[in-house]
Amino acid sequence: SIKLSWRGEPLLNKRIVDMVVYAKQKGIKEVAFLTNAELLTNEKARQLVDSGLDWMSVSADGVGEIYNEIRAPAIFEETLEKVRYMKEYRDSKGLTKPLLRVQSLVSAVASDTNPYFKAWEGVVDRINLIADHIRDLENRPDLEYDPYYVCSKPFNRINIAYDGAVHQCGADYAAKTIID
């Protein structure tokens, strides 16, 4: 499998659809990516469905004004409609892929999860909540970087950044352990 995103927005890549098609042609069984869907247009949605994409996860933290604040300049209702269009197009073709998933950080919906689940019900196939991660160690002097920590991820997957750097661990947000 291949996930065409890691710490970046894959829809910024003008050739993302070509990349999905190429991976599928080369026999990759599962091709996926995460997106904020801000750049998802109806045309791009149709292209992605037709490309053979297996799943797409939309990062949508909270609903309404909470989402608008966290994901600015994105607007919650616009994002919801973009994803709804993609699902309707997929369904109109009698397809089940790409599986469409939405995920929010728990902190963005912690006060009441019901509006989040209700907003996305019927728009996506799966609705997830994910734990918040500490990504900025420099602003957390109470946390120390352990240079001897061994991440288990490279034994299961490889994380290649946009610049070709291979990160030992997907949670290494400060790029402390680049594999040469």
- Indicate the mean pLDDT: 87
Strand order of the largest sheet: 1-2-3-4-5
Count of DSSP H/I helices: 6
Helix content range of the residues, please? 25-40%
From the helix content, strand content and strand pairing, which structural class follows? alpha/beta
Helix-strand topology string: EHEHEHHEHHEEEE
> How many beta-strand segments?
8
> Termini, distance in Å?
23 Å
For the sheet with most strands, the description reads: 5 strands, parallel
What sort of overall outline do the alpha carbons produce when their principal axes are compared? globular
Description:
Strand 1 (2-3), helix 1 (16-25) and strand 2 (31-35) form a beta-alpha-beta unit. The protein is α/β, with parallel strands linked by helices. The protein is globular. The model has no long low-confidence stretch (mean pLDDT 87). Helix 1 packs parallel to helix 2. The protein has a 5-stranded parallel β-sheet. The chain has 6 helices and 8 strands, in the order E-H-E-H-E-H-H-E-H-H-E-E-E-E. The protein is 31% helix and 17% strand.
Task: Describe the secondary-structure layout.
Elements (H helix, E strand, L loop, with lengths): L1 E2 L12 H10 L5 E5 L6 H10 L3 E5 L4 H7 L5 H17 L6 E7 H4 L4 H7 L5 E5 L28 E2 L5 E2 L10 E2 L1
Parallel strand pairs: 1-2, 2-3, 3-4, 4-5
Antiparallel strand pairs: 6-7, 7-8
